[in-house]
Amino acid sequence: MSAVLILRPEPGCAATLAAARGMGLAARSAPLFAIEPREWNVPTAPFDALLVGSANAFRHGGAQLETLCHLPVHVVGEATAEAARAAGFTVAGIGSGGLQGVLDGIAPGTHLLRLSGEERIELNPPTGVSIDEVVVYASVPRPLDPAALNGNPLVLLHSAEAARHFAAECDRLAIDRAALSLATIGPRVTKAAGSGWRALETAAQPSDAALLALAARMCQSSAR
Length: 224
Description:
Number of domains: 2
Strand content: 15-25%
Distance between the termini: 9 Å
Radius of gyration: 18 Å
Largest sheet: 6 strands, mixed
Order of helices and strands: EHEEEHEHEHEEEHEHEH
CATH topology of the largest domain: Rossmann fold
CATH class of the largest domain: Alpha Beta
Number of helices: 7
Structural class: alpha/beta
CATH architecture of the largest domain: 3-Layer(aba) Sandwich
């Protein structure tokens, strides 16, 4: 069975690594990003709820979050919901198919404050829903250690930002794309990875569990 390489930042990296090993995959990690807080101020406008696409907003949002704890939170998934609750927030809604899907379910007349990272997807609010955005954290890229690719592992990509950075690092280090297989968490990530890879496949759902299921299938196929 091929090895699996996990590049996402901590603490998600450790969680994915443990889950992968629990499935019997020969997994290792080499985080390509470090999450760092950014200075920000709470907007003065009144808001009805928060919209959050990553647990990092709660992990790195700082003391300013305390002034927003009275607002219900709509989050992208269960991991973000857990972080919201740990920070003292009430979760009003949990998505399962991306942040746009969460937004599409918001009632008209709602004014949202989106807490996000510097790298974020563009959203299209439905009629009657308005959004203000504030950046509270950033993913800071790290150089790729070529030794992490020894044996040509199957590389797992959790974000478009990671896909672009990984591809650029491979090119910088003159690593042959045709020797590497990639598994991504969604179509946007697959597009960001570019072309020329030995294999490039997309998880059926934008979740860690679906990505690991894809990784297991790809590893089994390569072992045949």
